[in-house]
Amino acid sequence: xxxxxxxxxxxxxxxxxxxxxxxxxxxxxxxxxxxxxxxxxxxxxxxxxxxxxxxxxxxxxxxxxxxxxxxxxxxxxxxxxxxxxxxxxxxxxxxxxxxxxxxxxxxxxxxxxxxxxxxxxxxxxxxxxxxxxxxxxxxxxxxxxxxxxxxxxxxxxxxxxxxxxxxxxxxxxxxxxxxxxxxxxxxxxxxxxxxxxxxxxxxxxxxxxxxxxxxxxxxxxxxxxxxxxxxxxxxxxxxxxxxxxxxxxxxxxxxxxxxxxxxxxxxxxxxxxxxxxxxxxxxxxxxxxxxxxxxxxxxxxxxxxxxxxxxxxxxxxxxxxxxxxxxxxxxxxxxxxxxxxxxxxxxxxxxxxxxxxxxxxxxxxxxxxxxxxxxxxxxxxxxxxxxxxxxxxxxxxxxxxxxxxxxxxxxxxxxxxxxxxxxxxxxxxxxxxxxxxxxxxxxxxxxxxxxxxxxxxxxxxxxxxxxxxxxxxxxxxxxxxxxxxxxxxxxxxxxxxxxxxxxxxxxxxxxxxxxxxxxxxxxxxxxx
Length: 528
Ligand SMILES: Cc1cc2nc3c(=O)[nH]c(=O)nc-3n(C[C@H](O)[C@H](O)[C@H](O)COP(=O)(O)OP(=O)(O)OC[C@H]3O[C@@H](n4cnc5c(N)ncnc54)[C@H](O)[C@@H]3O)c2cc1C
Prior knowledge:
Elements: E1 2-5, E2 12-20, H1 24-31, E3 40-44, E4 53-54, E5 58-60, H2 70-73, E6 75-76, E7 90-91, H3 114-128, E8 140-143, E9 147-157, H4 163-173, E10 177-181, E11 184-190, E12 197-203, E13 209-219, H5 225-236, E14 253-261, H6 264-271, H7 275-287, E15 297-302, H8 305-311, E16 316-323, H9 329-349, H10 355-360, H11 365-372, E17 380-387, E18 396-403, E19 409-414, H12 419-439, E20 442-445, E21 490-492, H13 507-527
Parallel strand pairs: 1-10, 2-3, 2-13, 3-10, 5-19, 13-21
Antiparallel strand pairs: 4-6, 7-9, 8-9, 9-15, 11-12, 12-13, 14-17, 14-20, 16-17, 18-19
Helix pairs in contact: 1-13, 3-13
The site of flavin-adenine dinucleotide has 39 residues, from helix 1, strand 3, strand 11, helix 5 and helix 13.
């Protein structure tokens, strides 16, 4: 047991439970079995190590909106995408209203409410290394006594943000859990009656095929790979795939509007909503080994739930970026794009643009102020909006004509946004603008050409919704226990089961649902 490269496997191996994927979802689930008598295997297509590899999932379709390359959106290795450079480790539970059916949000509502997830959120907080969840619940007035509409919500930067590094030792020591790295699941095989999975076909580290048989199977391979594996398996078995792959969601983000504070007090409040400053402090504390007990909380600008309900809006938050006199915003955008390119190159071929090239991206005032970010010198603030997307069936993952190295179809992603999502943002910005003006706190200016940005959303690398949860099998892929409808022993872990997305950061909820699924599996086993 422990962690080992999966090589020279016999034709068939057997376990009680087989988990596919050693990312946040798979590892959190498996961590519940470290001291149990059951045998559980986690198969992981990537390696154990600090440098994760790009994914092999598929490509972005030209039919949808522009999106990050899928190869660098998800990473392979022990710890999955949490090992990625760029993974922020931002955590927050979903809000209570995210679970409710809201008549103004199509296909909204989970089969259970926040109350049923609360104890699992607490366990997830321990796994990821965050403090008490009360601090992260609800919304507070941003300007008490001046505006009851402008609110803030809170997030926390988790301490175990490289989850693979954090969990490596307990997994390496485990007697009951075995992690096989460099083993890739190719497809699932159905039993003769079609009601269960009889085995999974995998390729070992040398590309040799073998089968794993177990009582239960859990797909925890990420929000694009989960539906791809199901679609490939359903196609091979000539089964209808229903809603598998439909309703792909990510949190779209846009930079629109400039806030100018009316006075120094207001500026001080707004400067606290600059998440980059807090994130940098956390990284420095982490390098110095000082972050163990400290909490790093971030706040964003949002609206109270009552206002969202009254005005029929989707969930929302904005981060604020300080703007200094003399900064050239086109140069700043170029610098940010260069860093994205740098990240992708590092993942794809281990090379970087080179710190020299990056440093040369405008060694001037714009970059200097962007790095230093002194709150007292901020003249105004740009608004980075993060939105809850309305679930949309047409936004989807399907199988493409392209094949992977095993000859199986790759995924094709067509990301789309409902009109309701974009209208909700327009109306939210209008409300914030009115409220700033009414309360005399400051001024929000939106240049007419800025609305054009609504046509080109930026993504957030959160892959959700493609095996959505619903008790009615015609409206979902998994039931309330994350079991695939119609397949007794197949379960799904990860944000692909989310029916709605909240306003940000899926990983804490992925981990909470994984603990919940672990308890459910233990309960089933204890009865049999
Ligand atoms: C740049 C970036 C920043 C992010 N920032 C945040 C943030 O601040 N907060 C937040 O909540 N979320 C963030 N996310 C999203 C976060 O990374 C994901 O929500 C989380 O990693 C998903 O966990 P998962 O276990 O479902 O999938 P993954 O972490 O992707 O793990 C899936 C694992 O399955 C393996 N696998 C896939 N296919 C197979 C196969 N066929 N056979 C065997 N193994 C397979 C993969 O190799 C991988 O290791 C960010 C993502 C990125 C890319």
